[in-house]
Fold this protein.
Amino acid sequence: MKNASPLVDTPISELLQNRSRPLLSYEFFPPKSEKGMSSLQDATEGLIDTHPDFVTVTYGAGGSTRELTFEIATLLRRFGYGPIMPHLTCVGNTEAELHEIADQIFAEGYRNIMTLRGDPPQGQENFEVTQGGLANARDLAQLLKARHPAFCLGVAGYPEGHPESQGHAIDMDYLKSKVDAGASFITTQLFLDNDYYYRFVDRCEKAGITLPILPGIMPALSLGQIQRITSMCGATLPNALAEKLTHAGEDKEAAMNSGILWCTEQIVDLLQHDVPGIHLYILNQIRPAMSYQLARTFIEMTGMERKK
Ligand SMILES: Cc1cc2nc3c(=O)[nH]c(=O)nc-3n(C[C@H](O)[C@H](O)[C@H](O)COP(=O)(O)OP(=O)(O)OC[C@H]3O[C@@H](n4cnc5c(N)ncnc54)[C@H](O)[C@@H]3O)c2cc1C
């Protein structure tokens, strides 16, 4: 990371507290190829005028794209995005390295970190604690808050349970431990049926978790893509969506349109339920992000009332 920018990001907790409407955020990921980089640059350029309230940049599984995460964050900053929230995971880092990374992030003026345990590196089935490292997101949140109390931390929530989940009650205990460690908000794993989100929010409220819970939404781009992703993260692929994507067959445009329309309907419903924001997994592409604009236009044109 180069220490060139004097910018200091606003904590997302402040944006959430002062919001007059639901926030909009995009997730970018560090691409692995030149073609991927060019798609990211197009998206970066094409989406700046949609004015997301903040953007996030993932941290490659196994820390594989660690430097790239910060390069992409710098690129987004150059384009005028902000605040920018890098993700950070425990995978492959000792505590001493995590301190060093935290100091670098802070020195660069980033004030928000998506705080995660991380997925195992490719080829490794289960998460293994790095020697001298940390075992879970709660411990990483504690480390980051102890090092720089001004950090605003987001943590992950799982409306359908984490793939290693031993049940909703234990999941909720883990989530609560992350909140107690200093998290300011929760972003959910993707879901394609909003009922999972609403039930999750209910369970959180019953467990005394009152932080904003940002729904994470990903448009399906094809049947193969969404089947692969949902099987990895444990989200349910609704039959009705699978049928639409199957019906599109080899027609890539038709499949993408079905996925974006599904996602738009999800967002319309979520906005009617007064969610604190919409976090879009945009897959480094422009069109998936359009679902939010479509949803807002639809609500404005139809004058739809809030449901709650
Ligand atoms: C919004 C979002 C963004 C993501 N971004 C990335 C990314 O950039 N890079 C990446 O590699 N992955 C990312 N992931 C995936 C995430 O790393 C995986 O889901 C990972 O398996 C769990 O991470 P976590 O932070 O939720 O873990 P944790 O909250 O630590 O929980 C994971 C598991 O650890 C155990 N556990 C948790 N807390 C405790 C405890 N207190 N005591 C004992 N056991 C415990 C439980 O088995 C639990 O199921 C993201 C996920 C989401 C939802």
About this structure: The domain at 12-300 is CATH 3.20.20.220 (TIM Barrel).
